[in-house]
């Protein structure tokens, strides 16, 4: 495809964001550079991946979904947007390979503001990899992605977002998911490269019996980076459950790891886990776990720990012939535990390679 | 020249002197058992041989195959052929037992065989030592030790927290290795169970940082069981030179 004839720098940027320019083992691709949609196609029957306006025109019944998830999450969104995509996985359809979406910044000081709608219809199942990246020229640019996810009855969505920005980029995505009866929403967030500022607090609203959400984030803050990242689950219906897990590493930058479990019904279950590792002598990690309930009969818990790599572990690996530097790197890579992401094998391998490549840069 | 020569060794933890002037020799293919009450300095000696942080050698020397290892970092000693089984190994989150096993050996067949013999299949892709039971931990330790093909194995109370069935599994696999590879083994034992499986030739008693009497470990262990450590010390009489 001609759209994919890109320069080397851009290809590398795409790969670092988990995007496969060859589209092998991908069910479809959407790509927007600055304000312009450059690729938008699906390789699978049962999957629609269209520029937002085109998508709404084709599926007018989903027009009324816009803003619905935010409304349920108690948030009002009032931002002018340009572009973005509609991903629709049709009823009962299981997508074998992940759908890939790439939002890229290229122009200096450009403000990219997109609006995305992801709808997984009843009983459908899909994996999405969403890579956000920027070219070297895109200094001081900003990205604002407004995304809403609708996981309908018995549907499943595993959405992995990889941020791979430059160190002068600011990003403030906003997202909300509405999970219906028996639905599962897994949201993974990874940001391993330097960025100026990321500020986000995605919310999942569990709105039907048996709905389940798992929101995981893995973040590394390099010197000069600030990542203020949280995840929130609103347990809106009995017999729903949520798990919020974060693994954060400061290499000198600042991380605020927020988490909020909110029980608005009885008989719900939630667990929140924040683990932080400060690797450099100075580095900021601020864990803010919040539990909130309106009823007695709920089961909410959290555990949080911040610390350094333990000498005991380094020495232990030393007794196996592994030197200190190597031991540190093994422990850090282990701490960035991609097991928590629940990824299919193809994607898992790619994410692990990315982790190997990026996770140890600057350490 | 022994495999391990501990010469006039004094070891302190912080400002506290734990061992003073200890002499000990372990030969190639020899299994040496160290008995002694809690707090007598047995673990300190083992950890000083491995080079674990916080155990500082204040006097004397440790030689391995005739070469002084006193100042060497842990990983160097490991690479020279010394391997230790910890009493309480730390959990390493996100690092799989399989990952460490493959770092230690590229012989997949050997790994597969030990994993089977030590019944570690179900733990192979779990995080190292995280939520392992006592027996699981020790079996996983033994796997790592054997895969590094050491010349000297240091076992710090291999029986603690382990049921008899697990001791039997470990004892057999360990003994095979020691015999086949003519490796030396330095064992700290409270219960003596492990000596039923490995052919221990020499035993020694440590009390308050001093070594007493060298003898047949099985006889010594019987004396200790029947009459206690002090009696064992008296009965065999002579302080080790």
Biggest sheet of chain A: strands, sense, closure? 10 strands, mixed
Protein chain pair with the most extensive contact, residues per chain: A-B, 22 and 24 residues
Strand order of the largest sheet of chain A: 2-1-5-7-9-12-15-17-19-21
Mean pLDDT of chain A: 90
Q: What would the average pLDDT of chain B be, to the nearest integer?
A: 91
- According to DSSP, the number of beta strands of chain A is 21
Give the helices and strands of chain A as they follow along the chain. HEEEHHEEEEEEEEEEEEEEEEEEHHH
Helical stretch count of chain A?
A: 6
Residues in β-strands, percent of chain B? 25-35%
Multimer state: heterodimer
Q: Sheet with the most strands of chain B?
A: 6 strands, mixed
Helical fraction of chain B? 25-40%
Entry keywords:
heterodimer, A: 363 residues, alpha/beta, 10-stranded mixed beta sheet, 6-stranded parallel beta barrel, 6 helices, 21 strands, 15% helix, B: 241 residues, 6-stranded mixed beta sheet, 4-stranded antiparallel beta sheet, 35% helix
């Amino acid at each position: 495809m001609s759209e994919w004839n890109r320069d080397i720098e851009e290809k590398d940027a795409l790969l670092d964001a988990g995007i496969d320019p060859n589209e092998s083992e991908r069910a479809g691709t959407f790509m927007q550079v600055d304000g312009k949609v450059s690729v938008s196609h699906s390789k699978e029957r049962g999957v629609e991946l269209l520029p937002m306006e085109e998508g709404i025109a084709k599926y007018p019944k989903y027009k009324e979904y816009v803003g619905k998830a935010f409304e349920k999450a108690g948030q009002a969104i009032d931002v002018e947007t340009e572009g973005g995509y509609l991903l629709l996985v049709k009823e009962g359809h299981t997508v074998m390979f992940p759908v890939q979406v790439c939002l890229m910044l290229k122009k200096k000081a450009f403000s990219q503001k997109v609006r995305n709608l992801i709808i997984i219809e009843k009983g459908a199942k899909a994996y999405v990899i969403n890579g956000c990246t920027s070219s070297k020229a895109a200094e001081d640019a900003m990205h604002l992605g407004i995304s809403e996810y609708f996981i309908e009855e018995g549907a499943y969505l595993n959405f992995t977002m990889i941020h791979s920005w430059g160190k002068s980029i600011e990003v403030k995505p906003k997202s909300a998911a509405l999970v219906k009866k028996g639905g599962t929403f897994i949201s993974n967030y990874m940001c391993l490269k330097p960025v100026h500022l990321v500020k986000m607090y995605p919310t999942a609203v569990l709105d039907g019996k048996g709905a389940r959400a798992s929101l995981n984030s893995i973040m590394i803050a390099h010197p000069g980076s600030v990542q203020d990242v949280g995840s929130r689950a609103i347990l809106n219906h009995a017999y729903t459950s949520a798990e919020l897990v974060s693994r954060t590493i400061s290499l000198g930058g600042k991380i605020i790891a927020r988490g909020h479990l909110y029980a608005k019904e009885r008989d719900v279950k939630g667990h929140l886990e924040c683990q932080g590792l400060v690797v450099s002598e100075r580095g900021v990690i601020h864990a803010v776990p919040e539990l909130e309930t309106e009823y007695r009969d709920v089961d909410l818990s959290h555990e949080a720990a911040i610390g350094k790599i333990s000498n005991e572990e380094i020495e232990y690996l030393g007794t196996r012939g592994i030197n200190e530097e190597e031991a540190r790197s093994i422990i850090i890579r282990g701490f960035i535990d991609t097991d928590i992401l629940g990824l299919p094998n193809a994607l898992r391998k790619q994410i692990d390679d990315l982790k190997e490549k990026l996770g140890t840069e600057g350490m | 020249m022994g495999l391990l020569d501990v010469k006039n060794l004094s070891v302190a933890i912080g400002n506290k002197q734990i061992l003073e002037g200890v002499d000990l020799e372990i030969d190639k293919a020899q299994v040496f058992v160290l008995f002694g009450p809690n707090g007598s300095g047995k673990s300190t000696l083992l950890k000083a041989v491995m080079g674990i942080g916080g155990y500082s050698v204040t006097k004397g020397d440790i030689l391995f195959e005739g070469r002084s290892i006193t100042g060497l970092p842990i990983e160097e000693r490991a690479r020279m052929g010394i391997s230790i089984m910890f009493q309480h190994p730390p959990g390493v989150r996100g690092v799989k037992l399989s990952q460490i096993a493959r770092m230690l050996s590229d012989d997949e067949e050997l790994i597969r065989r030990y994993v089977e013999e030590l019944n570690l299949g179900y733990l192979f892709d779990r995080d190292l030592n995280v939520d392992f039971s006592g027996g699981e931990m020790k079996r996983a330790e033994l796997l790592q030790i054997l895969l590094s093909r050491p010349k000297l194995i240091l076992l710090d109370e291999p029986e603690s927290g382990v049921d008899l069935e697990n001791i039997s599994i470990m004892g057999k696999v360990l003994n095979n290795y020691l015999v086949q590879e003519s490796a030396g083994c330095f064992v700290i034992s409270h219960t003596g169970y492990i000596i039923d499986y490995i052919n221990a030739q020499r035993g020694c008693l440590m009390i308050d940082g001093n070594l007493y009497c060298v003898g047949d470990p099985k006889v010594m262990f019987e004396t200790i069981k029947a009459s206690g450590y002090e009696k064992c010390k008296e009965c065999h009489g002579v302080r080790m030179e």
